[in-house]
Amino acid sequence: MKSKFLVLMILTGIAILSFAAPLKIGFIFVGPINDNGWTQAQYDGGVVAIQKAFGNQVQIKYIENVPEGAASLNVLRSLASQGYKLIYATSFGYMDQVIQAAKEFPNTIFEMCSGYATSTNLGEYFGAMEQARYLSGLIAGAMTKTNKIGFVAAYPTPEVVRGIDAFTLGVRSVNPKATVQVVWTYTWYDPPTEKEAALSLINSGCDVLAQHQDSPAAVQAAQQKGIYAIGYDSPNMGQFGPNAYLTAPIWNWAAFYVPNVQSVLNGTWKTSFYYGNMADGLVQLAPMSNLVPDQVQKLVNAMENEIKLGKFNPFEGPIYDQSGKLMIPAGQSATLDQLLSIQWFVQGVIGKISNQ
Prior knowledge:
This protein is an alpha/beta fold. It has helices at residues 38-54, 71-81, 95-104, 129-143, 158-174, 191-203, 217-225, 254-266, 294-308, 336-340; strands at residues 23-28, 58-63, 86-89, 109-113, 122-127, 148-153, 179-184, 208-212, 228-230, 245-247, 249-251, 273-276, 283-285, 319-320, 326-328, 349-350. It has 10 helices and 16 strands.
């Protein structure tokens, strides 16, 4: 789903396109809209929020469970051929196909979530989830008793690696003795596989779990085994582990989708790379549960305020990788290009970046 390599920004082209009402909008989703994770957050912040904001000015069609890769091109072509003039592709694995479709349909606007290529009719959007990841790490570091924290991770893309690193930096800022052990599932949405990975971490002594997965399987495993869990994507995950769930880094996609649609309706849309954050509301930390002690909640709230004010950056140096090599010197912060291409783990992470 998700980000990879350097951002290639082509800001010279401005799409001056006008469309007859209603504006036909298409979405393609990598999973089901009721996954209680990534796709549901995209659906709620996209389809539902757009319909609520614009009513009969728009006509929306969405397609669930579209495989990443070559198979998605025919779906994109079909939507464009049916007159859908604004098409959102909501997972990183669609990027090559979106690039191709944008070339074939120059009078259609495409928006790609978490990719890196732009053109005159193709924009990119994502957000600084590393900010909320860091805050959730503060909680995990404060709550662990074994100093062993588990992370159920999807694929070793820069987005996932960046999240693990930010989370670990948060953990170690309050608990330098704690480690974060990573298990790869090579899935975005596969509840049985994700639960198996979670249980393996619990069996190795981890007493807090975090995740970069689209299902609540890790939260369910934590509930089953009597440990703590931090969800992802959506606050809905709390219902699957009421005695385990602490919080979740979540997306408020309406912060992007509603203004983006408005720009198309206004005829002011232009290609860009949008990278939202906690200050503009795209990235959030879900309300902390009552399991999180008051003093920890106060710390997290204070740090969240510092992040929103631009006074704190989770990737401010000095930061070292697993081998002890200085990667970000003191007084410097990682650039956006560095974050979007990151392929190294910080000190405190146990695991390797491996493509199977």
